[in-house]
Amino acid sequence: MTKQPLLVLGPLMPYLLEELEKRYAVEKLYEEKDALGFLQAHAGRFRAAATSTFTGLKADMIDLLPALEIVSSFGVGTDSLDVAYANKKGIKVANTPDVLNEDTANMAISLLLAVTRDIVANDRFVREGRWARGETPPLAQGIEGKKVGLVGLGRIGSVIAGKLLAFGCDVSYHTRNKRGDVSYTYYADLVAMARDCAALIAILPGGDATQGIISRDVLKALGPQGTFINIARGTVVDEVALVELLQSGELGRAGLDVFVDEPNVPEALYTLDNVVLQPHMGSATVETRKAMADRVVSNLENYFAGK
After folding, report:
1. I need a labelling partner for 173 at 20 to 30 A (CA). Which of 60, 68, 90, 139 fits?
2. Contact 92, 69 (CB under 8 A)
């Protein structure tokens, strides 16, 4: 039986690529020396494409694929996918929600604990021999009983909220509209929520609609005792203001898994003990990435099976 052609737009994890190659006639566009020439010659063959949130799919690429019916993306974010344009063209866009909720939420909690309890700074304190020399590290901060504000309360945000309750935190949230199915305190005013909270966790989609929503005013309202955690997208925060306020002490601490210009991180953050940095590892566990890969495959299979 002839395999359905599948265009892979960018690098994917080896396990996923292997599973796709078992089922489809895979062509790796990212390995073509003349990608445009390849598309001009072969674009009409591809009813399906696979991509990721890192590679994305923009309108100009969609226009080069006249037969495209479905794109299956590895990742939950859609800010790198031109979903509206794809829908206008009748192209189905599928991603991998839900399977990454728990581990991404765990990263948020891990960063919150790592930053407030000075885990990384104290690890360095021991390794540098300072404890052995008789020095004493400063006291850290606890989170029990503290108010933690979630900027976003979707699938992952809701899981984070449940985990925060287990740590004895008082959960509040900011979204465009108040939800009627939760009892957490709702704030329509993000600055007001920041002012009332010990920590803010950003877990909302990227894109134009949320760019810079965590503004300088929000960060200043969080204050010198406050903690900011970002596992959303780097674009949701005013990164210049974030760095300046962390340097000046006007913002207390931050745990950052995402940045505006990944993998480039503002170098000023490297020397700050009040910041914990991660290389966009929110869902990066063996178990979750395998589940995400399986969802990419099943999205394609279900489409071609008419499900």
Report:
1. 139
2. yes
3-state secondary structure of 301: helix
Q: How far is CA 4 from CA 46, 49, 57, in A?
A: 8, 11, 20
User: Which residues of the chain are under the pLDDT cut of 70?
Assistant: none
Please pick, among 31, 135, 262, 287, the residue that the annotation labels catalytic: 262
Q: Is 164 helix (H, G, I), strand (E, B) or coil?
A: helix
Q: Which of 174, 233, 253, 295 is catalytic?
A: 233
Is 174 one of the catalytic residues?
no
Residue 109: inside a domain: yes
Report the CATH number at residue 184: 3.40.50.720
Q: How many domains does the chain have?
A: 2
Q: Is residue 282 part of a domain?
A: no
Strand partners, 264: 261
Q: Answer for the pair 148, 255: CB distance below 8 angstroms, yes or no.
A: no
Please compute Rg for the chain using Cα positions. Answer: 22
Query: Structure tokens of 258?
Result: 């995402």
Phi, psi for residue 165 in degrees, rounded to 5: -60, -35
- Residue 189, Ramachandran bin (φ over 0: left; ψ between -120 and 50: alpha; else beta): beta
pLDDT value for 29: 97
pTM of the model: 0.91
Which three-class secondary structure state does DSSP give residue 261?
strand
* pLDDT of 1: 72
Q: How far apart are CA 163 and CA 6, in angstroms?
A: 40
Residue 263 contacts residue 281 (beta carbons within 8 Å):
no
* pLDDT value for 226: 98
pLDDT for 307 equals 87
**Is position 233 annotated as part of the catalytic site?**
yes
Q: CB–CB of 173/150 below 8 Å?
A: yes
- 280 classed as catalytic: yes
Tens-place pLDDT, residues 40-54: 999 999 999 999 999
